[in-house]
Design a protein that fits this description.
Distance between the termini: 60 Å
Shape: globular
Helix content: 25-40%
Oligomer: single chain
Strand order of the largest sheet: 8-7-9-6-12-13-14
Radius of gyration: 22 Å
Largest sheet: 7 strands, mixed
Number of helices: 15
Amino acid sequence: MHIHILGICGTFMGGVAALAREAGHRVTGCDAGVYPPMSDQLRALGIDLIEGFGADQLALAPDVFVVGNVVSRARLPDGSPKFPLMEAILDAGKPYTSGPQWLAEHVLLGRHVLAVAGTHGKTTTTSMLAWALEQGGKAPGFLVGGVPLDFGVSARLGDGAAFVIEADEYDTAFFDKRSKFVHYRPRTAVLNNLEFDHADIFDDLAAIERQFHHLVRTVPGTGRLVVNATEKSLQRVLSQGCWSELARFGAGGEWQARGSHDAFDVLRQGEVVGRVEWELSGLHNQMNGLAAIAAADHVGVAPADAARALGSFRNVRRRMELRGTVGAITVYDDFAHHPTAIRTTLEGLRKKLDDAGKQSERILAAFEPRSNTMKLGVMAAQLPWSLESADLSFCHTAGLDWDAAAALAPMGDRAQVAGAVEPLVAQIVAAARPGDHIVCMSNGGFGGVHDKLLAALRKAVAS
């Protein structure tokens, strides 16, 4: 089969492309931003990439066009279509489908799908679960919205029956406004947490809860729902109907942790069934670990074995990833962009430093409100709360239609803003001192801030 993917350089669609190529299909694709590293990864797989969405690509005559949710019926100011290839597909009546639908029909069918959903922690928990299954001898397939360091790739078919997938609630395509995860039909579903997000497509939290319940409806009676017991929003989801085995984790659940965040016993119904000792920090990672262990148990990986596997888990790129140290100043890269994720990330680092007796070491938070939700400003008022664990905060304000300085005003001189990366770097370097931990947070490239920071710090130390 020849498939041509529109929007191939996105994390999810790039994973679909890699899986299709591994399965032996001919894969081509196009995007508006064909650039490294995704372009290099795809070309290394033998996938031909085309820049842009020109209608002339119709001549490729694939068996089916696979359409990413970046594609729309939008028009440019001059009235011409933003995606002329899509208009040509529609006009010619050519076959097309969405990425999630193609994945469901050609990769997931017949597999034991383990889907990880939630506002936060999807990528990390999916990677933990895949690693636990790998170490447990299950040889799982997986599709992750990031690159797990233990695997070095974001997607593979796997040799076993299990397939682990990051289950995103974002919409499927311009012609299918359901959440992506309703296509996956999991036998094991993790509901990690649920908050308001994606303000560009959801009106309120109740709208997202409705989509989560659509996912719950697809899990068979012999399946398992692994649910965060501490989340009221998830309890509301379950109150709409639950037809599967329920395994709850966290306070009040059957699966709990006892001990510190980096060394804890795993309890099931009060009995110790495993122990996790790892380098990760924060309650959020402890909860992610519990969810992964409870899900792995459903496919026959003993909790003790899953817990032991997590001890060697090396996390995911861009999750508190160490980028370098200069003059005793440490620079990290993290994917946090939602206020809750920012707060959780910084709290985890603060506790890790405090537990190590390093209470005097400061945290400097550098962030950009880049997600669609944050760009709309609907969560601007939560920023001071999200940054409470930081000693100083630096906000990149380019592209915002709301006043970040006003939103951060309650923080006083603990917060600064800059409209470009270079002055932001200058602000950070001027404030930094030995022992500081600089955490750069964004769901995008952040203008290469990490390398620019390290270079500027090296120059400052040398002068």
